[in-house]
């Protein structure tokens, strides 16, 4: 089946995906946005068209991506339902929502999917350059699940097929290793700033540690990348940490350290970490 891909929403995700699809020879019909200037900008960047109304975009598209914020998807769907959607494939790109948000879609002769690019879209004009390295997840109606999966694989991407009840847990995984890690890194930098460094110097000083950790995890897995005082069983260092850590961060330090102990026990089978556990739990 030949797809004519239309986008509702012309922000970072919509523009990046559209550009990525277009440079890989997929056919774009174009963009609709409530901000007409954004749609025109996206169309120019992706060498496609911009539409002034939903009905025209629907007419010229058989694969429609809703690339709006999550809170707007249901509203967009309620608008789409007012038009003829027979034989249309409707997708959203939310990580947390399933295709179930497209209520009664089958009664309209259409099919619904959630297709989520596992990527942080930081810039609408450059992010597309790195999309060949990412995974996509897909969830939805069985009818075109394989076809859409193969379409993405044909671009060189890996694809994860999900059950709809796994979407919240899947999204939690994405947020944990992305947004929450950012928060954790900021906390670490705040300790360096308390040592007298400014933020830029704190980031630069810690970045080799951060980079090497990620590289080692990628190359060797979690257990073989594990280092530090918890793995070594260094009780005195742990005690020093507990005396200087801000009270608001104490529970976080304990929880993460206990998980490190769990990993250390797997790496060093038979080694006793009970003295560290007792210190953390008391």
From TrEMBL:
<dbReference type="Pfam" id="PF10728">
    <property type="entry name" value="DUF2520"/>
</dbReference>
<dbReference type="InterPro" id="IPR019665">
    <property type="entry name" value="OxRdtase/DH_put_Rossmann_dom"/>
</dbReference>
<dbReference type="InterPro" id="IPR037108">
    <property type="entry name" value="TM1727-like_C_sf"/>
</dbReference>
<dbReference type="InterPro" id="IPR036291">
    <property type="entry name" value="NAD(P)-bd_dom_sf"/>
</dbReference>
<feature type="domain" description="Putative oxidoreductase/dehydrogenase Rossmann-like">
    <location>
        <begin position="4"/>
        <end position="117"/>
    </location>
</feature>
<dbReference type="InterPro" id="IPR008927">
    <property type="entry name" value="6-PGluconate_DH-like_C_sf"/>
</dbReference>
<dbReference type="InterPro" id="IPR018931">
    <property type="entry name" value="DUF2520"/>
</dbReference>
<dbReference type="Pfam" id="PF10727">
    <property type="entry name" value="Rossmann-like"/>
</dbReference>
<feature type="domain" description="DUF2520">
    <location>
        <begin position="134"/>
        <end position="258"/>
    </location>
</feature>
<protein>
    <submittedName>
        <fullName>Predicted oxidoreductase, contains short-chain dehydrogenase (SDR) and DUF2520 domains</fullName>
    </submittedName>
</protein>
